[in-house]
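Journal club prep, notes for RB
We'll compare a predicted complex against what the paper describes. Inputs for the flavin-adenine dinucleotide case:
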Amino acid sequence: GFLGGSTNVSGGALNAVDDKRQKAQGIEDSVQKFYESTMKGGHNVGNPELVKYLTDNAYPTVEWMEKEGVVFRDKIGAATGSLGQRSHYGKKPAGYAYTSAFENKLKEFGDHVVVLTETPASKLIMDKSGRVIGVSGLHAGKQPVTVMAPSVILATGGFGANVKFRQEVNTGVWKEVTLDNRIGTTNINKAAQGDGLKLAKSAHADIIGLSDIQLHPNGTPGTGLMQDIATSGRNRLFINKNGDRFVSESAARDTLCKAIFKQPDGTYWLLMNKLRYPDENKPDRMGVTMKDMLALGRVKKADTLDEMAKLINVPADHLKAAVAEYNKAASNKGTKDKFGFVATNTDDAPMTEGPWYACLKVPTVHHTMGGVRIDTLARALDKDGKPVPGLYAAGEVTGGIHGANRLGGNAIADVFTFGRQAGASAAQQK
Ligand SMILES: Cc1cc2nc3c(=O)[nH]c(=O)nc-3n(C[C@H](O)[C@H](O)[C@H](O)COP(=O)(O)OP(=O)(O)OC[C@H]3O[C@@H](n4cnc5c(N)ncnc54)[C@H](O)[C@@H]3O)c2cc1C
């Protein structure tokens, strides 16, 4: 009954090469680097043309979003698994910074735009030639609704919450892991069921890369949800139940999750300190305060590492050695530590002072990289690579952009870049 899907609840990280903001922070970057890290991070199976379109157009999309009312922060960060420091964040909390701006924009169109919530589309309507000419479904489970249109855009998101389907197609990176209910998801249950894939198939669109499923390392045990503290970015350590670091905290998400599964109980503590939370009353990027998270018992707090070790039941000498080891790497910018962590990031700094905060985390199903095959005009394509007349697709319902592993911050860049293109193409019936 509300707009926004995963975008609304997302961390809001949006990757783009932004000369103005990045230069002001001393970050060196280029569109070529962005392209290369996206291809490499995706195990080189993403479609180079789509990746080029994404990386070339992410910043023009930021500028367009600003014109449409989104206000970005000046500070650029590095989302978990972003393999670069180019993540933009809105001024309002998380993904709501974007969905609220576009909801306001819709209002400007008055009666020209009709929004139907609680109305899952269940059928694409096609004419005899195979052209998609409309869509139908049921409002509130009972009232039939049919919309006839010259163009239809699928923007129904991914299928991370469809437990049965994700297990059926799980033959890729996570084939050794059972993606059943024991592993949670960050996605909204009713929204992320993969409906768009069925609709696209019915119009003979090609569906690609379904086995490319992403797990995120920062899930909450029991639910897999991520709506607590802002866990992405830097200056937070991954500590296992022996009190040791075990992976480079800036690695890609598949590398992080694979490392976590090898730890005792397949879980770990995300350890932070005053550096990330200088003021417990100040909302972080997710709009959440540390004070509330402490009150809810989601995070543990201690003034010293010795006290923290007791609280989280790990050997104090290991915990202190792990922090010292990280601090050495953070002070020696450009040198690799034994896990491959390199503190080139202008944000990386030694973590020395309490209070310390720790939050237990597990891998969780987060993103589905496969979906409807599209071209750079966001047209849905059939098995022969020909556009399905009248059908367009954008966002997580599509495939081919992120390869086998999506970079943190690249989905929000993708949904707005290709979403904007899909709108233009559909309006012009390209
Ligand atoms: C908790 C969380 C944090 C994330 N953080 C980040 C981040 O910081 N940066 C980043 O790049 N990515 C992030 N992601 C991933 C990113 O948010 C998603 O990939 C992206 O928002 C998907 O956008 P979308 O428009 O394709 O789909 P969504 O935003 O999910 O929207 C799909 C919409 O379609 C609706 N829908 C579904 N089926 C039907 C149907 N049959 N008929 C009609 N409507 C339907 C849904 O209800 C929903 O409203 C995060 C994801 C989650 C869940």
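Talking point for the session: The chain has a mean pLDDT of 95.
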